[in-house]
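Sequence design from tokenized structure. All designs in this work follow the same two-part layout: the structure record, then the generated sequence. An example of the structure record is given first.
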């Protein structure tokens, strides 16, 4: 019986969809307008001499300034990390919860110290790189239409067992961290200058064509999990957008199951596409920047093709001169001891230029940044001991190898205390009685504060009460039990999803086979009929 369609209802449904679409567009336009009214355009301080635009949200800027002040008070802000956008990324990662962001920041600094991340680009050489590329094709290739680096992985060609035979998990993780450090030192600054806007995130493409999930063993899974933890904890908010291409129906089913457990902000950045992905990629990336195997027009002539070329503005020699001469690759020796050099005065020190450079790299207003040198100068100039040295030997304290740019204010001040002689009462204080009270006053106030803290701590019990200790132990046991159950559930879920993928692929194979068989039967029947008809005519 033929199906009857109510054309009136069909037109009404189309009209409703159109109205909903118009309402959605109006809401998006309204939110963009309100956001633009709350944003202000400033010159990017890191690249001030090149005039790079930097649009900042007023509320975000207030949050970043508050975050920065807390880090300064806690002595957790090395100069090399004193950057507006770096602080903003950590705030976004913790949804602007200041307490959580501070803890995350402190953990990051500790991890960098223990892992040696500050010097990993010089200290670590990944000798097995060429072999690894053969079993794990990946690399940077060009930029998207907004100037971000494009990172590509061909996961369908990964051979986990062979990969682990030419490298180790620890060495691969160090190579991974080294790649991030090079991105922040070279790729992001070069892209920022090239695009004339601040860049600190990637556009990523994962090609899963031919990927066999069952070939990924425990070692490979652990490697991926550790990489994700390193990225999330220490390089947050660096993914702008991800495209997973050549995804089959089984992968889409797995993704629809898994994304329910992920942060909506993360899932909004990930686009899972089938084998008709080219137009979507070309909306974001110009064809000249996209390899031919992904629908672009680029076919790099070098050995290994596009993924070995590392194509991008960071290979422009003139542009990289600007990056290096602009002192954008600030070294970070936060954990080294301070060593100020005392040099003879031959000519006037260009302190004004030094002060300007100190402020220009921070990303914050001059009024909030220009305090380090002035503070030290005041501290030293008020010291009788230093006055005696200067008057007798004609020397000055000057920064060694852009020291102020590489050392934390804590260590600089500690050294200044040693120079001034604050650890003990200077012998010159009695000779200059008008300065004696001013000299000792801040230390008396600090001593009072310490005494109050000691009294407050001594009034508290030294041990946790027995009943509270038992409650705490019981809670920890419950948490461990829940974590164990959660791990079991995750494993079961992964196994179920894998089975679903296999069943889906089997069903597709059966459907294709059934269609092929039906077509062949139809041809046989038609041929027999024609043959019979011809014979009857004869």
């Amino acid at each position: 019986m033929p199906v009857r369609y109510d054309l009136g209802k069909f037109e009404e449904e189309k009209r409703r969809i159109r109205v909903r679409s118009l309402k959605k567009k109006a809401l998006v336009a309204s939110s963009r307008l309100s956001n633009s009214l709350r944003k202000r355009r400033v010159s990017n301080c890191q690249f001030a001499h090149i005039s790079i635009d930097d649009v900042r949200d007023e509320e975000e800027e207030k949050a970043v300034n508050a975050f920065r002040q807390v880090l300064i008070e806690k002595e957790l802000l090395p100069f090399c990390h004193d950057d507006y956008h770096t602080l903003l990324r950590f705030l976004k990662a913790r949804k602007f919860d200041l307490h959580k962001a501070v803890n995350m920041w402190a953990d990051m600094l500790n991890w960098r110290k223990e892992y040696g991340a500050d010097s990993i680009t010089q200290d670590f050489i990944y000798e097995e790189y060429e072999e690894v590329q053969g079993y794990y094709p990946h690399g940077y290739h060009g930029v998207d239409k907004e100037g971000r680096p494009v990172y590509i992985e061909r996961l369908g060609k990964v051979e986990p067992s062979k990969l682990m035979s030419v490298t180790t998990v620890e060495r691969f993780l160090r190579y991974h961290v080294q790649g991030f450090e090079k991105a922040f030192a070279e790729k992001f600054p070069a892209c920022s200058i090239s695009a004339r806007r601040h860049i600190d995130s990637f556009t990523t493409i994962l090609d899963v064509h031919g990927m066999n999930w069952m070939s990924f063993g425990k070692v490979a899974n652990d490697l991926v999990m550790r990489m994700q933890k390193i990225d999330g904890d220490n390089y947050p908010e660096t993914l702008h957008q991800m495209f997973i291409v050549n995804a089959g129906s089984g992968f889409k089913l797995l993704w629809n199951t898994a994304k329910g457990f992920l942060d909506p902000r993360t899932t909004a950045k990930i686009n899972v596409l089938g084998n008709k992905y080219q137009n979507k990629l070309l909306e974001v990336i110009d064809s000249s920047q996209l390899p031919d195997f992904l629908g672009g027009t680029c076919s790099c002539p070098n050995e290994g093709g596009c993924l070995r070329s590392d194509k991008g503005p960071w290979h422009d020699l003139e542009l990289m001169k600007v990056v290096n001469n602009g002192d954008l690759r600030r070294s970070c020796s936060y954990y080294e001891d301070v060593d100020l050099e005392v040099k003879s005065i031959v000519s006037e020190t260009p302190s004004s230029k030094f002060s300007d450079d100190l402020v220009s790299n921070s990303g914050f207003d001059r009024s909030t940044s220009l305090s380090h040198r002035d503070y030290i100068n005041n501290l030293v100039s008020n010291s009788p001991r230093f006055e005696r040295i200067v008057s007798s030997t004609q020397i000055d304290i000057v920064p060694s190898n852009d020291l102020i740019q590489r050392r934390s204010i804590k260590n600089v001040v500690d050294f200044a205390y040693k120079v001034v002689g604050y650890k003990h009462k200077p012998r010159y204080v009695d000779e200059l009685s008008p300065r004696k009270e001013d000299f000792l006053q801040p230390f008396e106030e600090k001593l009072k504060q310490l005494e109050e803290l000691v009294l407050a701590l001594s009034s508290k019990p030294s041990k946790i009460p027995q009943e509270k200790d038992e409650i705490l132990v019981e809670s920890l046991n419950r948490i461990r039990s829940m974590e164990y159950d959660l791990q079991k559930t995750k494993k079961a879920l992964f196994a179920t999803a894998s089975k679903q993928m296999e069943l889906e692929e089997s069903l597709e194979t059966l459907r294709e086979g059934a269609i092929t068989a039906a077509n062949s039967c139809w041809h046989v029947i038609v041929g027999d009929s024609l043959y019979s008809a011809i014979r009857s005519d004869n």
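Residues 1-5, 333-361, 366-410, 416-434 have pLDDT under 50 and may be disordered. We note this feature because it recurs in several other targets discussed in the main text.
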